[in-house]
Specification:
binds ligand BES, binds zinc ion, binds magnesium ion
Length: 505
């Protein structure tokens, strides 16, 4: 689908579907509707009255124009109250517009750029949000549909045209469309990787996906660590998790370096959890809990998605993307409850539950990351069911050893529309992961606060580096279909948030 910007009047534009909108409480904002209604000889207002359309959020009215104007159909969408308007609503409108076009079998759609005449909303941000919403809603994951699935039955929206009343904002709006397009591409890549079954998205394949981004001119390089290299580096915790699987583990180290800029560049390391399938290992999960465990590499998928955007966004910081891809399986060679493993930094860990494997792979990933001497370290991990219990499925948990970093990330999340809530890294709870026979153990043992004790485990491996941990077990995947830009399956949580964070660090 192509996103275009045009400066044109409402009635000048021939298209299959024209999308307009209306606030619940502001008549002044809606002169488009007056223009349309006049051209349609009063039919529009009549329809709105008859169907009880008042402009509340989520209300939609679609009707044909019978040749009275150039557009074949009109959709009018409710925006709710002006005071509640925000950029995330623009994303939802963009996505909803695409959905309506699909059900109305429209090949092209025209929509006025919304929000620009409200105070505090720049044309760039409005155009970016509309683009994100549209592209994220339009993408379909059909790779695994069989021969009988006829993709021609699905309407393909070819053009999404954003109309501007004022030509002077064309350039800034264009920047927004471009940025939105790049971000959506990164998010959709992350989604596709997570949605792919574990039988295809193996550790080896994760590495191949990262390698694809190291193109000439992108500023990105990619180094792979095979099992032997991981062994030489002493990544015994990650190797222990991988031991039960037939698929060998692979370590990935992506680096983005800005071409120009300051003498001493800041650098950020982003670590992702990359368990390509989490069966629980010998501490086997129940069948129901295993159904979605192909998503346990969502953190690393977001790292790959982020790097896809970096090549185009070219931020002024150096970025390391690091993950150790493993599969967690039970077998005769699997690591056992009771085993003690020595991590890359020499910490000994008593493994009491092989299903708390994420923190083991992350221990070595974080050690490897701080060896790169980053100014800031962030990890993303589908780490605990406890975080989902604490915050629900829509909100990620944030745990950080640095308030300024935490605030920056929360702020980036607000701009990207990804929900995030800080949890305390309460050091006293660290007592719960002390081991009698080793330095620490990998589970706290059933006294609640599981998202916190997991983060405290990770904290052992970050030293004094400003560090933030995002527990994305909840929002990385959804089956609820509550918003048009977030269909069934993987969300790509974190890609836009991190791109936003890197923008002005
Ligand atoms: N992959 C899971 C966490 C998870 C749960 C992700 C639900 C997505 C949705 C993780 O490896 C795990 O199994 N964690 C255990 C930890 C426990 C054994 C301390 C959990 O949350 O139950
Ligand atoms: Zn697990
Ligand atoms: Mg979920």
């Amino acid at each position: 689908m192509q996103i275009k910007l045009e400066k044109a009047g409402l009635l000048d534009f021939g298209c299959d579907l024209l999308v307009v909108y209306s606030f619940e409480d502001s008549d002044g904002q809606n002169n488009e509707i007056g223009v349309l209604d006049a051209a349609l000889e009063g039919a529009m207002n009549k329809l709105m009255r008859q169907s009880g359309f008042k402009g509340q959020t989520g209300q939609v009215l679609v009707f044909p124009t019978f040749g009275k104007i150039k557009a074949r159909q009109v959709a009018i969408m409710g925006l709710g109250k002006v005071k509640d308007f925000n950029t995330d609503l623009i994303r939802k409108i963009g996505g909803r517009a695409v959905q309506i076009a699909e059900t109305q079998r429209a090949k092209n759609l025209t929509i006025f750029l919304l929000g620009v005449n409200l105070e505090g909303f720049s044309p760039q941000l409005c155009a970016q949000a509309l683009t994100e919403g549209a592209l994220l809603a339009a993408h379909k994951f059909h790779l695994y549909k069989g021969r009988k699935h006829n993709s021609r039955d699905i309407n393909k929206l070819e053009a999404f045209t954003i109309l501007l009343k004022d030509g002077r904002i064309l350039k800034t709006a264009q920047n927004g469309v471009e940025r939105g397009g790049v971000l959506a591409e990164g998010v959709l890549l992350a989604r596709d990787l997570v949605n792919a079954p574990s039988s295809d998205m193996t550790p080896h394949q994760m590495a191949a996906e990262a390698k694809k981004l190291a193109l000439r001119g992108s500023g990105i390089t990619c180094k792979l660590l095979d099992q032997n290299a991981m062994h030489r580096l002493g990544m015994n915790a990650a190797l222990a998790v991988a031991r039960g699987a037939t698929h060998p583990p692979v370590g990935v180290h992506l680096v983005y370096r800005p071409t120009s800029g300051a003498k001493r560049q800041k650098s950020v390391a982003i670590v992702g959890k990359a368990v390509t399938f989490d069966s629980g290992g010998l501490s086997l999960k129940p069948a129901k809990s295993m159904e979605t465990m192909k998503i346990d590499m969502a953190g690393a998928a977001s790292v790959i998605g982020l790097f896809k955007t970096l090549a185009a966004l070219k931020p002024k910081v150096a970025v390391h993307g690091i993950f150790l891809a493993v599969e967690n399986m039970p077998s005769g060679s699997a690591y056992r409850p009771g085993d003690v493993v020595k991590t890359m930094d020499g910490t000994t860990v008593e493994v009491l539950n092989t299903d708390a494997e994420g923190r083991l792979t992350l221990a070595d990933s974080l050690t490897y990351a701080i060896k790169q001497k980053p100014d800031v370290l962030i990890d993303l991990a589908t780490l605990t069911g406890a975080c989902v219990t604490a915050l629900g499925e829509d909100i990620a948990g944030l745990l950080a050893n640095d308030d300024a970093l935490s605030d920056k990330i929360l702020n980036a999340a607000k701009l990207s529309g990804e929900e995030l809530w800080r949890l305390p890294l309460r050091s006293v709870y660290g007592e719960q992961i002390k081991s009698k026979i080793a330095d620490i153990k990998n589970i706290a043992g059933g006294s609640g606060g599981g998202a916190i004790t997991a983060a405290l485990f990770l904290q052992n491996f970050v030293g004094n580096t400003p560090w933030a941990h995002l527990d994305i077990a909840g929002p990385s995947y959804t089956e609820k279909e509550t918003r048009p830009d977030l269909p069934f399956g993987a969300s790509g949580y974190g890609v836009r948030l991190l791109a936003e964070f890197l923008k002005d660090i």
